[in-house]
Amino acid sequence: MGRREEKKRQKREAIESAGLELFLSQGYERASIEQIAASASIARGTFYLYYPTKLELFEALVDVWFEPLLKLLDEAEARLAISHTREESLAIYGEMTLGLATLGLNHESAVELAFRESRGGGEAGAAVRTRELRLQAASLRLTEVGAERGLITAPNPRLASLLILGAIERLFFEVLSDAEGLDDPLTLASGALAMLGNMLDLPTGIV
């Protein structure tokens, strides 16, 4: 990477760090581009070279964890589509829950930001809810594939998928709350997998 590219990377990271801190401390609506630029030690005009709007900065911060989360569900769906046994499906869900726990731990501030803004009435809240709808669709596809192949028990795939999403949300919430015993991704994955296993009638003791 050349010096120019390195400076651009550093400025982008400074903008993102400042934006995340101000969005969390003041809320998306109250935090201004002027404040973000000042905190990042850049001119306001420089901000626009990286993010044309404040919303695009917010979305970039949220997508740091949302896009990997969606990818986890898509990959699990693809693996379920070629699996043959419930034991295999349990292993797939096990790896998925470990990935979820790790995401929560690695991007706590970004997850917290999304949670705070998710029920807001402004553009940031709308952006989060749009992503939640994509997540719901991915979770439903995952559950439908498993049910159609007889790998999980889900008479009502939509209900099961909503329960799975509820478990994911609770998982992230517990991480953000620094709940006792939830500082290790393996601990998180184990508890979540046991809950999913009971709900979907998966065998135990495989992972």
Describe the secondary structure blueprint for this structure:
Elements (H helix, E strand, L loop, with lengths): L2 H24 L6 H7 L4 H7 L3 H27 L5 H21 L1 H10 L5 H26 L8 H20 L8 H16 L7
Quick overview of this protein structure:
The chain is mainly α and about 210 residues long. It has 9 helices and no strands.
Write a structural description:
The chain has 207 residues and is mostly helical. The protein has two domains: 1-52, Arc Repressor Mutant, subunit A (Orthogonal Bundle); 55-200, Orthogonal Bundle (Tetracycline Repressor, domain 2), CATH 1.10.357.10. The chain has helices at residues 3-26, 33-39, 44-50, 54-80, 86-106, 108-117, 123-148, 157-176, 185-200. Helix 5 runs antiparallel to helix 9 and helix 6 (108-117) crosses helix 8. The radius of gyration is 19 Å and the shape is elongated.
Low-pLDDT ranges = none
The helical percent reads: over 70%
Supply Rg: 19 Å
The tally of structural domains comes to 2
Intertermini distance: 42 Å
**SS strand fraction:** under 5%
Average pLDDT rating: 86
User: Sheet bearing the most strands, described?
Assistant: none
The H-level CATH homologous superfamily of the largest domain, spelled out, is: Tetracycline Repressor, domain 2
Structural class determined from secondary elements: mainly alpha
